[in-house]
Structure formats: structure tokens, C-alpha cells
């Protein structure tokens, strides 16, 4: 069989399809929205604003710098929802305690779940791979 230009065309088409397919196998790093309740999260944003958490805390590194960034506190294996509830109830030397109603507390948690699902705030968890694309560092 002679090798013709059209064979090259078929090979390139096959490679194109294979590569496209391989890209879609790895799910995009967007997490499903179903992990939080949208309406409650919207209420939670108002709670976040009315107690002015942003004056001491950051979301995506923006905000006050007295306390830590809370964007991904929910999925942090050492922190999570329990720490948030405890911290708000009891406070520390540096952070005042807040007396939130149960509804406010639950909405606030939902809001923090939504910020968590929206992405990662810490740029140190990302690196540039050999193709020049930004990827999340899985090892950390
Ligand atoms: C007056 C500043 C201030 C305000 C206002 C404030 N915090 Fe804090 N927060 C801090 C500081 C400082 C720390 C770190 C305290 C420590 O480690 O002793 C902290 C810690 C936390 C932590 C634990 C974080 C971690 O990584 O351990 C959570 C959760 C938290 N705050 C939630 C909130 C929420 C929610 C609000 C709003 C209702 C709020 N904070 C309002 C100052 C504040």
C-alpha cells in the first residue's frame, strides 16, 4: 500500500479525535454546584456582610489581614464546618465571639461552602506544567 497524503489526513484526524477525547476524560476542576444550597448561600453572604467578617478575613486574598483567608476553610481537612461554628460561638483572644441565630449560622456555612466550591484561593497549590498550562498540585 502506498502512503498517500490522504492517509496522513486520516492519521491527523484520528489523533485530533483521540486528543479531544482525552481532554474530556479528565473532568474540569469546576466542582458541582449541588454541593451547596444557592438560596441559603445568598442569605449567608448577607450574614457575612452584616457581621463584617471581611474586615478581618479574606476571600480570595481580598479583605482584612487580622485573621486568615476563609475561601477554602470548609474543605480544609484540619478545619471545616466544625471549626467555623466553634470559632464564631467562642471567639479567641483576637477574634470576637458572635451570637448568630441557628438560621444565620447555617446560611453562613452555606455561603462558605459556595466560596469553597468556586475555586482555590491559595496560588501555592498551583504550578505551570510543561505545556505552559496551570494545574492544581495534587500532592499537597
Ligand atoms: C476583629 C477581627 C475579626 C472579625 C470581625 C472576625 N474574625 Fe474570625 N478570626 C479573627 C482572627 C484574628 C482569627 C485567628 C484567631 C486565632 O487563631 O486565635 C480568626 C479566626 C477565624 C476562624 C478560624 C480560621 C482558622 O483557619 O483557624 C474562622 C472560621 C473565623 N475566624 C470566622 C469568622 C467569621 C465567620 C466571622 C464573621 C461572623 C469572623 N470570623 C469575624 C478575627 C476576626
Taken as a percent bin, the fraction of beta residues is 5-15%
Instruction: Report the structural category.
Output: mainly alpha
- Reading the helices and strands in chain order gives HHEEHHEE
Number of helices: 4
Largest sheet: 2 strands, antiparallel
The largest sheet has its strands arranged as: 1-2
N→C terminal distance: 52 Å
Q: CATH topology of the domain at 36-122, anyone?
A: Cytochrome Bc1 Complex, Chain D, domain 2
CATH class of the domain at 36-122: Mainly Alpha
Helix content: 40-55%
Radius of gyration: 22 Å
Per the principal axes of the C-alpha atoms, what is the gross shape?
A: elongated
Write out the CATH superfamily name of the domain at 36-122. Cytochrome c-like domain
Tally of strands: 4
Look at the structure and give the mean pLDDT. 90
Q: Which kinds of small molecule does this entry bind, naming each only once? A: heme C
Sequence stretches where pLDDT stays below 50 over 5 or more residues:
none
Name given to the CATH architecture of the domain at 36-122: Orthogonal Bundle
Considering the chains and any ligands shown, give keywords for the structure.
single chain; 140 residues; mainly alpha; Cytochrome Bc1 Complex, Chain D, domain 2; two-stranded antiparallel ribbon; two-stranded antiparallel sheet; 4 helices; 4 strands; 44% helix; 7% strand; binds heme C
Amino acid at each position: 500500500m502506498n502512503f498517500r497524503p490522504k492517509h496522513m489526513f486520516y492519521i491527523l484526524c484520528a489523533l485530533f479525535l483521540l486528543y479531544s477525547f482525552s481532554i474530556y476524560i479528565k473532568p474540569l476542576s469546576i466542582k458541582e454546584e449541588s454541593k451547596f444550597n444557592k438560596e441559603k448561600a445568598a442569605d449567608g453572604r448577607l450574614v457575612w456582610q452584616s457581621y463584617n467578617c471581611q474586615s478581618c478575613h479574606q476571600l480570595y486574598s481580598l479583605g482584612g489581614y487580622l485573621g486568615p483567608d476563609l475561601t477554602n476553610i470548609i474543605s480544609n481537612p484540619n478545619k471545616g464546618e466544625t471549626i467555623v461554628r466553634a470559632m464564631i460561638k467562642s471567639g479567641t483572644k483576637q477574634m470576637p465571639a458572635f451570637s448568630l441565630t441557628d438560621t444565620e449560622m447555617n446560611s453562613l456555612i452555606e455561603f462558605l461552602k459556595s466560596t469553597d466550591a468556586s475555586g482555590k484561593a491559595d496560588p501555592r497549590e498551583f504550578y505551570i506544567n510543561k505545556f505552559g498550562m496551570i494545574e492544581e498540585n495534587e500532592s499537597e
